[in-house]
Design a protein that fits this description.
single chain, about 525 residues, alpha+beta, 8-stranded mixed beta sheet, about 30% helix, globular
Amino acid sequence: MTANKIHDVAIVGFGPVGQLLAILLGRRGHDVLVLERWPQPYDKPRAVHFDHEIGRVFQAAGVSDEVMAITDPVPDFYEWRNRDGTPLVRIDWSGIGESGWPTANFFSQPELERVLAKAAEALPTVSVRRGAEVGDLSEHPDHVELTTTDGAPVAARWVIGADGANSLVRRHMSAAATDLGFFFDWLIVDTVPHERRTWSPMNWQLCDPARPTTIVSGGPGRRRWEFMRLPGETIAELDTVDTAWRLLEPWGRHPGNTTIERHTVYTFQARWVDTWRSGRLLLAGDAAHLMPPFAGQGMCSGLRDALNLAWKLDLVLRGTASAALLDTYGTERGAHVRHAIDMSIALGEVICVLDEDVAAQRDRRMIAGGADPARVLPAGAPPVLVDGVLQRLPDGRTAPSVGHLTPQYRLCRDGTTALLDTFTGFGFTVLVDGPATDLLAPEHRRFLDEIDATVIELTPEPTDHGYADVENGYLPHMREHRHLAAIIRPDFYLFGAAHDAAELADLIDQLRDRLR
């Protein structure tokens, strides 16, 4: 039996990564079929954190208000304390991050999945088949055929494996993985306290060698404890409700004031695939990488995968870019993910200390550093794209400053003040200091229209035309660096900048070359 039609994209897996992919591609009008093996959504907590950049991703997916309604933004510091309660490090998670969203946010994954699933299933070009487990794949020159357990054949031009750590798509690709051998078992206990109260700090680590413990929000009205497995304990002994209550008891939690939603033992790992694309098959999320939770970047990394892949696949499906563009997906995301994994391991090596003497040395060092993260935590620069769809110098090197995450500030136009992406939508953005009328040749305007780029003419004050930089976020920076214009990619990373009209023309030519 053969499929009746060939979909643009088949997404295997309907967790947050698959859901976001379906939304982003569906909103662009592509025919998307989602195949999810489980007949019903899993109703237990798992991921609990996303950062300001991922808030901006949700904004791009059109679900800002719905996500914020189920989210606890962090109002204070993320603290690590020793067994005596002395702060070892205090990381400021309060306020608004550079992406225009709260710096750190906590949620319950089932609630987030309901928001994303509703948004995806409301799109006319997206179809979701639950209870449809993929059994096999066969690749053809212009499509991929998938067999499913519900018997209905499927064909798609592209297949994305967002099907988790045991990915069938990854196995079919025979994708090798790099594993750093970082393994620790932790008991995760998700609870619903019966009383309403303020937890201060909201999120912290108890760095006690007798039992390293994590205490964080699980989203509004929820609380999570994580307990490291000690030598001599078996997973079976640890993963019981009796053990969960025994470990919660010193924290004042008991069946009279708390409900346990879930308890399970996770083995934290650190690995990533070496191949993200094979022909018409691609991987995203846990199918492509796993990392310890200590930096809170597991799901965040998967959602960055989704956005990076979605904008590139959109251009390929529309015929605006060649399929070779998809090779940059793995190049860019692989390096980014390795940075997140390295940082997670570095933090874990500070937290997962069971030796009393080593812990005492750690405590003395961090206390002497004044609990300042810049002085006591492993040094690490923010992740930057170093190879891929980026501006190049004449000698082929990546231009300075490109590949950085760009900030999102508020602009004002026609009396409406809103964040940048509210005006631009999903796609490339060209920021220009002043009028752009005489800067862009007709051929460059046509190309920008082809890729649905938005030109934002910035002004210092509100005028009859243009966008007023009311927060002084963009123009002072551009003028300090003598930049006339800058191009921001759909995933918010800087493609490149230009000092004058001639450089802007070259910059647009470079973007066209990178896409084709």
